[in-house]
Design a protein that fits this description.
The complex is a heterodimer of chains A (489) and B (574). With 489 residues, chain A is of the alpha/beta class. Chain A is built from 16 helices and 8 strands. Chain A starts with a helix and ends with a helix. Chain B has 574 residues and is α/β, with parallel strands linked by helices. Classes of the chains: A alpha/beta (489), B alpha/beta (574).
């Protein structure tokens, strides 16, 4: 965030100038009334109108560029945070759901860097308030003191009124998110709902949650309206007091009528910066909480993996039959010479050929590998063949198609040690047998470990590891009753 | 892909009026309150003006009266604003709630092939983004917009009341503002849409990369994926900066309008005071009036864009809500049993690209049939036609002696349930998920359904699904089969319901499927041939035709396609 310090300073300076320009508008209106309208001199009118025009030019340009620079400062910092979270999530296994990580990378990053964006506005508001206060004191010491000393309690009052509102609004947001979440959940699962004829039950559930959310929202709307109304009343009463004191001062000749107009205008103007303060405090608090969550995510340790040793000779084709593959897979994945292709391998946006060649070793022959993994059959069945676009992380393909594409990708990467987990559960028996032979051919001379209970794959293995023993599939089938129970059921 | 309909601007207006008219009293009262509040807000400036005049005249006691009026007006304005804003928000929230409920109701009512043709992505984006867009407009923009618009209109009246020439002077700003608003709305609409699309793309990329982290790591694609995310972030940043640029230009032009209008009012005041038509106080009041308008004008024009986007979202919601309901004539005939008879089924998704070429099928009630064959043979299409998801291009399906095309939805669901390999666990307690299939089912009944599918997962009150306890694929599919048991149809179709699970999971699911098919007719699409071997009969599909049909023993003896599949399957099984 601090890398954006220069931008934040520039934006602050420009926004300060903008605030000063805004504060000058009511002052200049008063001056025009005093110097020109009251005197009737056209030249003065023209002169002060020109000054007014200059003021507008300055305030407009300062706002334009100050806001732009502030925005850039915010989004650049945002980018760094997003990428930092992404890098962490990809670097090693993390004990967080993907949805939670994405929410940290987007919502929390935005809330954190919102500070970059609001800080210049806050500084500008402070300066604006000071300029307005000084101008008021220059008009009249008692009137100025009244306004300058009267605003902080006013500010405090408004803040106090808004605090319960903030608490309630976050509760409301949760409830509303609930209704939105349930709607999305039901729409995503609409095919399943219709499959079991649960349309009515689902709608009844949604209506209940939507009504609950509505009740919670209505509760907050009253608080919100009450807050807006209170602000109106407080401001109005304050203005009345200013008018009372100012009017008397003007009547007694201590200040001019133009100065009275300026003072009333400035009192109204002060409300702006004061409101900004309130918003900024809230943004800073939210930013702090979010920054904490980002730091926590980036600093999360990897999920611990036990070190795993499998006795295997170089170039061997080993199958492992196990009820508990997860620790084994985690342990193997932590090794740098091993590539573990997960059972639920994700495909990524792009065409089938893009996915197959995502991590291709340069010396490998893609056509040969795709034939071995049965991707050629997949391509034949699809309208655009290998150029078919994959969407929804591969969910646009059937399970069997997805498995074959993922297998081809793993084979084409040609790692020194390849670990496959149940690579053929969704293909028919003939194709499975062909793929089992294909894996063997492509991996000839390289070490391959397949975790499976499928006899078609087990039969191709040089050695099968099962419950502390090892041997060929044929031997184990003949000699080991537990093994038979595990793979033939 | 046929996108779902969007309602025309005219229909949208008509339907919205109808929705608001349901709360007519509330709407009218809200308007009266806000109008009153806006009117009172205008009292302040002339009162200050008269205080100026009284100060010139040195009348101190009259000043106090005026000041009390200023304070009193503020109080009354606050009370009216409170009433008006509360009512507007209530009205907006109520309309919003009924909109989202009607939308979900309609989506649940749509025929499945209509949803599939439109793509579930379109529906999901309507129920998330469009509803959020409208909520935001209702909550933040609407009250501001109405208040500002009222103040704006009344101020012009107030200015003209001071002297009509002030009104004319103020109107000089209007052409600039109108041109600016037009310029802005034309540019901002597409820009905001582009920004939303870019942000959606970024989110999607994040989900893809972070959700697929295990795969990304396995293939050492970390740097590539970080830079993919970076590119999407850059695309969003570019649009955010472009939006800011447009907004700042917009406000810059409005500043020009303010200057022109303010100068005109001041000049008018100068001339009118010279001519003796108005007092200095009136001239001050006019200038203050106009200066106080800056805020409301800017927010009305700025919010035009939100209002426009919300209207577009509204049209997308109403488009779905008002889709004509398919006629669901209730069938008088009741189902005799769970027997299935299909005659001459042909189907093509794309014209001239048939997937099924005349399939005949006769399944006695209570028996289990396995559909086998290579991928792309038409197994899934046949399953969908039998379940009544799609209407066949030609041919008929009868379940229990009644044509599927004649069944109303309720009868159809009693007749047949389809479970596919698509798993979705509904967010909430597990019991709620199961009760979707049978509302009002007691805990005992839910437990016995879970027991039947061999459930070893968390308890009924565990919160599962998105944001809750993550179930394994096997468990999710067990839940689907438990739902099937609770829904208790005459015919159950399982389309590769065991394919997603790993090999040990597949065995759990196979026995679960067996339990789910007990006492009903079953059609099972399966790759694991143990399932086929256990079925009463087997149908082999190839290129959209039934090529073999018989019992396991018959087909193995026949030495055809099934025999080859079986040989491959049992080759290494001892």
């Amino acid at each position: 965030m601090f890398a954006q310090r220069g931008r934040i300073l520039a934006a602050s300076a420009l926004l300060v100038a903008h605030q000063a320009g805004e504060a000058a508008v009511p002052v200049l209106i008063g001056v025009v009334i005093d110097k020109a309208v009251a005197s009737g001199q056209t030249s003065r009118l023209l002169f002060w109108l020109a000054v007014l025009a200059l003021d507008f030019l300055v305030l407009s340009l300062c706002w334009r560029f100050g806001t732009r620079i502030g925005t850039v400062a915010g989004v650049q910092a945002d980018r760094r945070l997003r990428l930092a979270v992404t890098t962490r999530a990809l670097a090693g296994p993390i004990d967080m759901l993907p949805g939670a990580v994405v929410s940290v990378a987007t919502s929390d990053a935005r809330r954190t860097t919102m500070v970059n964006f609001v800080l210049p506005h806050g500084i500008a508001a402070a300066v604006g308030a000071i300029v307005a206060g000084t101008a008021l004191l220059a008009v009249s010491i008692p009137l100025g003191l009244l306004i300058v000393l009267g605003t902080p309690p006013l500010l405090l009052l408004v803040r106090l009124m808004s605090m319960p509102l903030e608490r309630r609004s976050s509760a409301q947001q949760e409830r509303a998110a609930d209704a939105a979440g349930v709607a999305t959940d039901l729409v995503r699962g609409v095919r399943i709902l219709k499959g079991i004829g649960a349309e009515r039950a689902a709608l009844a559930r949604y209506r209940r949650i939507s009504r609950e959310s509505l009740r919670a929202t209505l509760h907050t709307t009253r608080a919100e309206a009450g807050y807006s109304a209170a602000v109106i009343v407080v401001n109005g009463v304050f203005l009345a007091i200013v008018a009372l004191v100012g009017g008397r001062l003007a009547a007694s000749g201590s200040i001019t009528v133009g100065q009275l107009v300026s003072a009333a205008g400035l009192a109204v103007f002060l409300v702006g910066p004061l409101n900004t303060f309130g918003e900024i405090t809230a943004a800073l608090a939210a930013g702090r909480a979010s920054a904490g969550r980002i730091a926590e995510t980036v600093g999360q340790p990897d999920i611990a993996a036990d070190s795993v040793e499998i006795a295997m000779a170089e170039g061997e084709f080993v199958c492992v039959v196990t009820e508990e593959p997860a620790p084994l897979l985690r342990g193997l994945a932590a090794r740098s010479d091993v590539l573990v292709s997960p059972h639920h391998a994700d495909l990524f946006a792009g065409t089938i050929i893009d996915n197959v060649t995502a991590a291709a070793a340069p010396h490998m022959n893609a056509t040969e590998v795709m034939r071995a993994a049965g991707v050629d059959q997949v391509a034949d069945a699809l309208p655009d063949g290998l150029r078919t676009t994959v969407t929804e992380r591969g969910r646009s393909l059937s399970g069997g198609q997805r498995q074959r594409v993922a297998l081809a990708r793993a084979l084409l990467a040609d790692p020194p040690i390849l670990v496959l987990h149940d690579p053929t559960t969704a293909v028919d028996a003939v194709t499975e047998a062909e793929i089992a032979r294909g894996i063997r051919t492509i991996r000839d001379g390289r070490t391959t470990v397949v975790i499976t209970t499928s006899p078609a794959l087990l039969a191709e293995a040089d050695r099968v590891l099962f419950a502390g023993t090892s041997g060929t599939h044929a031997h184990l089938i003949r000699d080991n009753a537990d093994y038979r129970a595990a793979v033939l059921a | 892909m046929t996108l779902l309909p969007i309602s025309s601007p005219r229909d949208t207006r008509r339907l919205m009026l109808k929705l608001v008219a349901k709360h007519k009293l509330m709407a009218v009262t809200a308007m009266v309150c806000l109008l009153g509040a806006a009117g009172l807000s205008l009292v302040t400036a002339p009162l200050l003006g008269s205080i100026v005049d009284l100060a010139v005249a040195g009348d101190v006691s009259a000043i106090t009266d005026r000041v009390l009026l200023v304070g009193g007006a503020a109080l009354a304005q606050g009370i009216l604003a409170f009433g008006g804003l509360t009512l507007v928000a209530r009205l907006g929230e109520r309309v919003l709630a009924s909109l989202r409920e009607d939308f979900v109701a309609q989506v649940l009512d749509l025929p499945l092939d209509r949803i599939e043709a439109g793509g579930s992505g379109d529906l999901t984006s309507r129920v998330t983004e469009d509803v959020a867009m409208i909520s935001q407009a209702v909550r933040t923009a609407l009250p501001d917009f109405i208040q500002s618009a009222l103040v704006l209109g009344l101020t012009l009246v107030g200015l003209a009341a001071l002297d009509w020439r002030f009104g004319v002077a103020a109107l000089l700003a209007v052409p600039i503002q109108a041109a600016t608003a037009r310029w802005y709305v034309q540019r901002s609409g597409p820009l905001y849409t582009a920004r939303r699309v870019a942000a959606g793309g970024e989110q999607q990329q994040l989900f893809e990369s972070v959700g697929g982290a295990e795969t990304v790591r396995a293939f050492r694609l970390n740097d590539e994926h970080v830079s993919l995310v970076g590119r999407k972030v850059d695309a969003t940043i570019k649009l955010i900066v472009a939006v800011t640029r447009t907004q700042t230009q917009f406000f810059g032009r409005l500043n020009a309008a303010e200057l022109v209008g303010l100068s005109a009012v001041l000049v008018a005041g100068f001339l009118l005071v010279q001519a003796g038509s108005v007092t200095i106080g009136a001239a001050s009041a006019a200038a203050l009036y106009f200066a106080n308008l800056f805020g409301p004008i800017n927010s009305v024009l700025f919010l035009l864009d939100t209002v426009q986007s919300a209207a577009a979202s509204l049209a997308r919601l109403l488009g779905v809500i008002t889709m004509s309901d398919p006629v669901a004539e209730s069938s008088a005939k009741s189902l005799v049993d769970g027997s299935v008879k299909a005659v001459g089924l042909r189907h093509s998704y794309v014209a001239d690209h048939p997937v099924l070429h005349g399939v005949d099928l006769d399944i006695p009630a209570g028996s289990t049939v396995a559909l086998v064959g290579a991928s792309g043979g038409g197994k899934t299409t046949l399953a969908k036609l039998l379940a009544g998801v799609h209407e066949p291009t030609s041919g008929t399906v009868h379940i229990g002696g009644v044509a599927v095309s004649d069944m109303d939805r309720l009868t159809l669901r009693k007749a047949v349930v389809l479970v596919t390999q698509e798993v979705h666990v509904f967010a909430g307690p597990l019991a709620d998920d199961l009760r979707l299939a049978k509302p009002g089912a007691g805990e005992e009944e839910l437990r016995s359904a879970l027991d039947a599918v061999g459930w070893r997962g968390p308890d009924l009150d565990t919160v599962v699904g998105d944001g809750g306890h993550a179930l394994t694929v096997t468990q999710a599919q067990q839940v689907a089969l438990a739902r099937l048991i609770l829904a208790d149809p005459l015919l159950a179709i399982l389309d590769e319901a065991t394919a997603e699970a790993g090999s040990s999971g597949a065995r759990v699911l196979e026995s679960a499927a067996k339990a789910a098919l007990r006492d009903r007719t079953g059609i099972v699409v399966a790759h694991r041939l143990t399932q086929a071997a256990a079925a009463d009969s087997i149908v082999v599909l190839d290129h959209g035709r039934i090529v073999e049909h018989g019992t396991h023993a018959e087909l193995v003896a026949a030495g055809g396609r099934y025999a080859r599949l079986w040989a491959a399957w049992s080759a290494h099984r001892g």
